[in-house]
Amino acid sequence: MFGLETYLAVLFLLCVITVCVFEFANGFHDTANAVATVIYTNSLKPTYAVVWSGFCNFLGLFVSSYFGFKVAMGIVNLLPLTDLVMMSTGESASLVLGMMLSGILWNLGTWYFGIPCSSSHTMIGSILGVGIVFYWLHGGDGVNWGKASEIGLSLLISPFIGFSITILLMYILKRVVKVRKEIFKEPELGQRPPSWIRGILILTCTMVSFFHGNNDGQKGIGLMLIILITFLPIQFALDEKFDANVCLNSVVNIENALKAENKVDLIIKTNDLKENVNSYIAIKSNSNELPTEFKKQTVVLRTKIAKLIKRLETDIKSKTFADNPQNVTAIEEEIKYLKKSTESIPYWVTIMIALSLGLGTMIGWKRIAVTIGEKIGKRHMTYAEGASAELTAAFTIGLSTQFGLPVSTTHVLSSGVAGAMTASKGVKNLQPATIKAIAIAWLLTLPVTITLAGLLYYLLSLVLK
Questions:
Q1: Helix crossing, 383-402 with 409-425: angle to 10°?
Q2: Cβ atoms 163, 415 nearer than 8 A
């Protein structure tokens, strides 16, 4: 018979595995978009293309560790972590497994039929589904609808950006390029394009793959962090080197700068945070006698710090502080420390997700790539169309990452391909059946994943109580 510790370890391991599987599926589902252009223009052989794209995905996520995980933190903040920590381990596992299995099933289903579908929409729908059912069962905060609306708007407008900017790029290219018109030709069967065209297309493929890893990989890190904080809050809710006394000193320094600015409302928030830090210190000293309270207080403190950081950054950006650079500089220095306390990601998590995403890219890419390369337009893409679509996707994904917003690589690139085809010969150049299938999948993704994730969570919670 399994002991309790073994049972809990198995549940934890299952949840971790499902995140890795989701990112693996994300790799061959989404990154197929990036390799489609270089493969269908004969710029790279399929084997070289997918291996190179997989490496760039790995590199993109690994590099993001040096610039912060804004997208990952946005995912983490969608769910009420404090409430999740107080749940039984079985129900916590039910929520995570329901969320991840929903995403995996929808990703695999759309991949099987070769339909480009957004893993980002899939993931957001799954998170919303379990969040809604959690609220129905337990009350509390449920979903962070403010953050969900922000992410939803990003996902909604990204296809229109992809479509519009690609049309604009094609328009500019046709008027700027007066020589070397071969860039507007379709690839000839079995013939490689000129080296300069190959260089452009390999570069754009590299950019899309890199920024896809940078953005989509962070989603996997966010999901993994939800699991770690839910199961092991004391170890992962705050940085492993977190020192409550140093944190308290940092908050006092912020408070002093705020007093000089006479920011009364923010001073109240710093006082509240100081009380939380002191509570954390007091409970930590009795953590053996009060383990449940210590878990809760650790997550509460993390949440309070994150909220204060967000408010301070908002005020600094909107320039509501008086014209005193020293106060702003002092606050910004303390924000850096506090961010490190709440946004620290273990390297093994980054490597695990990066490997899952990179390896997934190298397997199963063909179904989606065929749709992108052959079925959106009524003919093969020209070199200019492929490069324009990928350049637009890389720009949009990279910009979204800087703002901490998850964006759909699939939606942006598919829309870009459609925009490029439309720019060449109008809407009649698109294949209606394929566009219709993609549109239906896009429209169904949120309602299906919300329903499926919520149902799976509820059923699993009955079994794993």
A1: 140
A2: yes
Domain range enclosing 326: 239-342
Burial environment of residue 97 by CB neighbours within 10 A (0 to 12, 13 to 18, 19 or more): buried
Show which of 296, 327, 342 is a domain's final residue: 342
What DSSP assignment string belongs to 62-109?
HHHTTT--HHHHHHHTTS-HHHHHTS-HHHHHHHHHHHHHHHHHHHHH
- Measured on CA atoms in the order 122, 126, 127, 129, is the torsion positive or negative? positive
Instruction: Please tell me the distance from the alpha carbon of residue 436 to that of residue 399, in angstroms, as a whole number.
Output: 29
How many whole angstroms separate alpha carbon 405 and alpha carbon 446? 17
Using CA atoms, how far apart are residues 225 and 81, in angstroms rounded to an integer? 10
Q: SS3 for 366-386, per residue?
A: HHHHHHHHHHCECCCCCHHHH
Q: Is there a single domain that holds both residue 26 and residue 56?
A: yes
pLDDT tens, residue by residue, 409-459: 777 777 777 777 777 666 665 666 666 766 777 778 888 999 999 999 999
- Whether 32 has a pLDDT exceeding 80, the answer reads no
Q: Among positive and negative, which fits the CA dihedral 229, 233, 235, 241?
A: positive
Cβ atoms within 10 Å of 293's Cβ, excluding its own:
14
Total domain count, the chain: 2
Is there a single domain that holds both residue 57 and residue 98?
Answer: yes
Helix axes 347-361, 195-231, angle to 10 degrees: 130
pLDDT at position 259 is 85
CA–CA dist 361, 50 (Å, integer)? 6
Question: What's this model's pTM, rounded to 2 decimal places?
Answer: 0.83
Average pLDDT score over residue span 9-31? 84
Residue corresponding to tokens 């046709």 = 174
Q: In whole numbers, what is the pLDDT of the chain averaged over residues? A: 81
Classified as helix, coil or strand, 430 is: strand
